[in-house]
Amino acid sequence: MRFDLSDDQEFFRETARRFIETEIPVGKVREWHDHPDGCPQSWWQAAAELGWTSLMVPESLGGGSISGRPIVDLAIVADEMGRGVTPGPFMPTNAVADTLGRLGAPDQQALLEGVMTGEVVLGWAFCEPGGDWTAAHVAAEAVPANGGYLLNGIKTAVEAGAQAHHLLVTTQSPEGLAQFLVSADAAGLTATPQESLDLGRRFAEVRLDGVAVGPDALVGAPGAATVADVERQCQVMLVLQCAESAGLAARVLEFTAEYAFDRYSFGRPLASYQALKHRFADMKMWSEASYAAADAAADALADGREEVRTVSVAKSYVGDRSVELMQDCVQLHGGIGVTYEHDLHLYMRRATVNWGLFGTPADHRERLSRLLGY
Amino acid sequence: MDDFVYAETDPGELARYREEVEAWMNENMPRRDPVNPWHPIQDDDERSSRNRELQRRLYDGGYAAVCYPKEYGGQSLTAAHKQVIDDVSMDFDMPILFSLPTLAICGPTILEFGTEEQKQRYIPAWIKGDELWVQFMSEPSGGSDMAGALTRADRDGDTFIVNGSKIWSTFAQRSDYALMLARTNWDVPKHRGLTMFIVPIHHPDIEIHTIKMVDGTDEFCQEYFNDLMLPAENVLGEVDDGWTVATRLLFHERAAVGNASPYSQGRHRNTSAGGVEDLAAVARDRRGADVGRHRQRLGHLETLGQVEEMLSDRVVKGIEGGFLPAPSGSLVRLFHGLSRAERYTVALEVQGDHALVWNRGESTGAAGLEYLQRQAASIGGGTTEMARNIISERILGMPREPAADRDLPFSQVPRSG
Question: What was the ipTM of the complex prediction?
């Protein structure tokens, strides 16, 4: 967690933690693995009541942040959700709400009221099979027809794709990259649930077979402006993902250290062996550094200061270290660490999915290198 | 530090201070050489006199060691003010020799344990650039086990007679005073028989030898004491209670190395292997075979460099706010040692053959020499192994390592041949 929270932010964080601990302890997380939507709608609405979906919505539309830096406040929730491996369509709903709040037409912004109560879930159909998480790889097409567009293409790993009431779809159009807000029940749109390592979140493949949309479905201006919008959406996702992975890793380190104190071998606790203590020291360093990087990324995006570089630094570090930390914690647990019964794998599942979505650490290292002119 | 207040500082006041510092530095301090901004002066005398002169300039301007109390030559300002000076001074030539260990390590230790006479005598002299200090802590018999010191100081009335040897003191041959840990009582367990002394370095009974390092530099020294007589007034703290003083000195050292000290002055360069931008430029020149691999490695280095600063900021804030325990500077120390090793390895890869065999007069060999000395960053200032002990024991609360010598009188402790 951050060390610079205001009293209001600290209260907000504490409320989120208490809500997660009482409403959805890890036992319940496991129960909800069998829920088709990952969590009951009523629970998501209760979470929304705490402000989890209204921080990115402008005040003029009924939303508002706690600190004036919405992404920082939202990252506080992401950290707590990581600590609790909490399900819910948190990331895509907020990333798309942010875009609609900034660029949406009045009709589109009208949806935000439902988003803020938790009744409306939003998804972002971006990545495509065989492609990567960059605008350059988008091949789905928006073909002008009858004054509007016909959308064709296949999107994969669309978080909450089958739960979302509306999907933001990123396409190529004759005017360049273009995004459309499409209702989930539009003719020609099918969302098929996919399997995922993460048992809490839900993903879907979304097929667009000649989905007809009017010109009013466009979000933002096609072309360079949309390329920037997509970049911003990626950054929001990455900041939340890094905050969550830092929280996941910190929690795993905590319970693994507790285990090392409680578990005796050869008449002494595991925590007394220097070979293991030194590994814990490395992991503590990774954990604190992960928080440092995740928080710096949220700050950079909030302040519009070197956010491209800082977000990639955070992903390249946190993505990498969070999963390494967890594999090491499995090793320190021994056999129990690779059983289904133990909670560790729940955290590792989430962290591993976070590792890859929106670019692997290696992708972001490559990106950093190009930013350096190499 | 007990007597240092991490006061909240008004952002407006800091912005105003920044303008003031910028204006003053532009007017009074030389800019770094833009071609070779971090190239240290090779000649020891020139380096020493240059640093003393620059320190004096800072003092005259009121920007030297600003977190020190006014009565000893400082400005009684906050850590945030010091941060402003460090930020602004990145573009200027700073008297970096004074920062470590004089101002940031020996300094706060004397502030904490010195008598009023000692503080009046020594502190203003270093803030004004008159006297440089070093540490006489490590001994040839062992680095990490500092409390196992074998240098002896035998009391004879109001004097102590010192015999033995210290090692790894930086730039001692051009410095003026040292803090020295010596054994004054051999009949008690090791931590209870040590005393900290203030030692004038240029003394006929101290022999100083420089140590040539793998890369050819000779900053480090070894000292031999031959019946060196020290007056009792040179004791810092209490006789036989030197370990209490040393513990705090080590704390200040870790804070300083972890960039968390309010008493340091000016920022040390992140690396001597060149910034990642420089390496990217080298890689560009050599573009061809390994573009993909170099991209990964350069991106990785950029990540480590940035995250090290982020972690350092977090640890400073965490300790200030009471979120992290005081020994958390060891997290930064560990990160630094490991990232430095990776940096030198990547620099070597990027330079390739040119770092191994080069034309006379070219500088590409530097990356090779730095690689040979790569582990120095994981050894000096407390090894990374000690940092891992501190993190696991004092941050995570894990059981301490058993010590075979803990309750034995020191004279009975087994030691290496």
Answer: 0.94
